[in-house]
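In the design runs reported in the main text, the only information available to the sequence generator was the tokenized backbone. The following block is the verbatim input for one such run; it is reproduced so that readers can re-run the procedure and compare outputs position by position.
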């Protein structure tokens, strides 16, 4: 049986154990509508005093728009982090290998920067050679079931899906919305083939650790890397697969279950981890210093 997490009251309790932080964004730093001041402060202190904070996100766009959004929409100071690495950054490698395609592109217009400069052509489903999925066309209204019929047609043609966002859902304010991973999950359930580069898959961690080494000016000691996240199937599973310490933030996707009346529920946290066969070195309700 996996040992339960140690429940820390703040990042300051454990910061001296680590040289690098790989932190999730959505669910840790903001909820899609507003930033969490405590988390911004905690990461900024670590980044300024101890070592690089590399934000790793399953956003299906290159890091530039994500950095801009953090500053412009959420007023997150640049000094909060050293680098941002996205699933989009890692996915562009997979897409470039398949250019010129053509691809049937599923996703909202805001994700189109993913394709810039790749020479990838777009086509309707019946003329495409593969599928590129960043998420539903309308994540406020669409569900995976809306795509079932088209997915059956695509699988009958033997099309592979490249999914730029492995997240199943994320929290937008007080609402959970479907992401690309939910569509990929259905595609696989229908016996379709899916490739992903974001969390929990290795490519995004390889890229993030390489950026951390550049910032440190030396190789990264993996025993002194802390991953932070709220997603069991992405953040926690990815850190476990990489054999990296992880801090589980309970008041994110699973906040309704694991934080009640503002108090962390350790037994619920431990149950959630056990059901998924996962472990976390540390846990806290919200990221604070």
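Verbatim output:
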């Amino acid at each position: 049986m996996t040992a339960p997490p140690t429940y820390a009251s703040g990042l300051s309790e454990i910061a001296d154990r680590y040289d690098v932080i790989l932190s999730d964004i959505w669910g840790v730093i903001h909820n899609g509508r507003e930033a969490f001041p405590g988390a911004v402060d905690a990461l900024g202190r670590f980044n300024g005093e101890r070592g690089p904070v590399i934000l790793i996100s399953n956003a299906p766009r290159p890091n530039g728009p994500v950095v801009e959004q953090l500053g412009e929409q959420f007023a997150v100071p640049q000094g909060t982090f050293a680098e941002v690495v996205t699933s989009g950054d890692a996915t562009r490698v997979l897409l470039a290998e398949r250019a010129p395609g053509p691809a049937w592109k599923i996703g909202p217009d805001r994700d189109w920067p993913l394709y810039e400069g790749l020479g990838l052509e777009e086509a309707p489903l019946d003329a495409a050679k593969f599928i590129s999925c960043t998420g539903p066309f309308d994540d406020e209204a669409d569900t995976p079931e809306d795509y079932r019929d088209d997915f059956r047609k695509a699988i009958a043609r033997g099309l592979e899906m490249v999914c730029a966002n492995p997240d199943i859902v994320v929290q937008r304010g007080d609402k959970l919305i479907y992401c690309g991973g939910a569509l990929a999950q259905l595609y696989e359930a229908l016996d379709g083939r899916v490739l992903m580069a974001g969390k929990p898959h290795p490519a995004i961690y390889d890229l993030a650790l390489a950026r951390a080494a550049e910032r440190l000016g030396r190789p990264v000691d993996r025993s002194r890397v802390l991953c932070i996240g709220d997603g069991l199937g992405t953040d926690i599973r990815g850190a476990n697969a990489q054999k990296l310490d992880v801090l589980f933030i309970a008041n994110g996707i699973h906040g309704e279950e694991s934080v009640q009346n503002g108090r962390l529920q350790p037994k619920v946290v431990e149950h959630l981890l056990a059901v998924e066969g996962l472990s976390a070195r540390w846990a806290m309700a919200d990221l604070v210093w």
